[in-house]
Write a structure and sequence with these properties.
- The protein is α/β, with parallel strands linked by helices.
- The protein folds into 2 domains: about 140 residues, Nucleotidyltransferase, domain 5 (2-Layer Sandwich), CATH 3.30.420; about 130 residues, Nucleotidyltransferase, domain 5 (2-Layer Sandwich).
- About 40% of the residues lie in helices and about 20% in strands.
- It has 9 helices and 10 strands.
- The strands form 2 sheets. A 5-stranded mixed β-sheet has the order 3-2-1-4-5, with helices on both faces.
- The chain is globular, with a radius of gyration of 20 Å.
- The two termini are about 30 Å apart.
- About 45% of the residues are buried.
- The structure holds 5'-O-[(R)-(carboxyoxy)(hydroxy)phosphoryl]adenosine and zinc ion.
- 5'-O-[(R)-(carboxyoxy)(hydroxy)phosphoryl]adenosine binds next to helix 4 and helix 5.
Length: about 325
């Protein structure tokens, strides 16, 4: 019997719905909320309002694009957390109502686990491209930077974490210093491609073990820019591409150095990246170079599955469905999971 999952993601500022059948994506729709750009970050109140108006059309469109009818859906998976509570409440309530109306199981999904599970989404003709176990994944998103070791689809262990800011936050906050709109990560990525990565040097933190720290980099970037603006008020405009390239190089070096350490310490050479920052071209290229040098089996998600999307919630829900890991209707979202 085929298994069809409707998935809903509403943890931050994107409303997304997807339909997954036996691990393959039939549809994956994302409604972005442009409203936050002008505020330099996500405004929680505005995010939940936008989810409220977007969720029904996005879900209906995902079902239509999948070419299925509502009756074909076996379960509904939703993001329980972590994320913005008001945003999560919209997706959770919708999922519950849908499950009750259709008399189908409800499946809670951890957003972070789902970012990693995005690498297990099947594609016709490329079924052998999914990671074998044990698998070491560097999860780099807007809110988290951590290493996860997977022994199987259900067993994930965190072996390293950021002690302060996440890599995505480093991109976004430094971008804000340069006057870039939120999220600055993708813009820095583009500008960096045309800049000189060796133009400026920023100090890298010395953090023991497999943990990360990015707040020092953000502060040294801010003080450096402030200092330069004193002598040249147009310093940012004159050097934007070089600043982006140098900053990006520093972030990537921090990530790569620790990944090499994590692979050595665990002895795992099936290595991957996941999360919003894994869309970064510089990071993807640096990982490829490192993989070649170190004989890693490298797994990089397709661009469409790097930032927040419901397909990753769907694939995680699919594996939970196989083990009948269903949730009760009393379930509530968790800002911290
Ligand atoms: O995984 P994600 O969509 O949301 C969270 O779960 O946090 O990640 C969003 C983060 C933001 O910080 C954004 O700036 C960053 O991913 N990001 C990028 C790129 N695309 C998204 N950072 C660097 N380069 C990119 N191309
Ligand atoms: Zn995310």
């Amino acid at each position: 019997m085929p298994i069809t999952i409707l998935a809903i993601e509403s943890s931050c500022d994107d409303t997304s719905a997807a339909v997954i059948k036996d691990g393959y994506v039939l549809s994956n729709l994302i409604a972005n909320q442009e409203v936050h750009r002008q505020y330099g970050g996500v405004v929680p109140e505005l995010a939940s309002r936008s989810h409220q108006s977007n969720i029904t059309p996005v879900v209906m469109m995902a079902i239509k694009q999948a070419g299925i009818s509502v009756e074909d859906i076996d379960a509904v998976a939703f993001t329980r957390g972590p994320g913005l509570l008001g945003s999560l409440l919209v997706g959770t309530s919708f999922a519950k109502g849908f499950a009750i109306a259709q008399k189908i199981p409800l499946i809670e999904v951890n957003h972070l686990q789902a970012h990693v599970m995005a690498l297990f989404i099947l594609e016709k003709g490329k079924e052998d491209m999914i990671p074998p176990f044990p698998f070491l994944c560097l999860l780099v998103s807007g809110g988290h930077t951590r290493f996860i070791v997977m022994k199987n689809h259900y067993d994930m262990e965190v072996i390293g974490n950021t002690i302060d800011d996440a890599a995505g936050e480093a991109f976004d906050k430094c971008g804000k210093v340069m006057g870039l709109p939120y999220p600055a990560g993708p813009i820095i990525d583009k500008l960096a491609a045309e800049g000189n990565p060796n133009a400026f040097k920023f100090a890298k933190p010395v953090i023991k073990g497999l943990d990360f720290s990015f707040s020092g980099l953000k502060t040294s970037f801010l003080y450096f820019i402030r200092g330069m603006l004193k002598t040249d008020p147009d310093f940012i405009e004159h050097n934007k591409k070089d600043l982006c390239a140098s900053l990006q190089k520093t972030i990537i070096e921090i990530l790569i150095d620790k990944t090499v350490k994590a692979s050595k310490e665990t002895g795992i050479n099936n290595v991957g990246i996941a999360g919003g920052v894994s869309a970064n071209l510089g990071l993807r290229n640096a990982m490829r170079e490192e993989a070649q040098k170190r004989d890693w089996n490298l797994f990089i998600p397709e661009f469409k599955y790097t930032t927040d999307n419901a397909a990753m919630i769907g694939i995680t829900g699919y594996y939970k469905y196989l083990r009948k890991e269903f949730s009760s209707h009393e379930i509530t979202p968790l800002a911290r999971y």
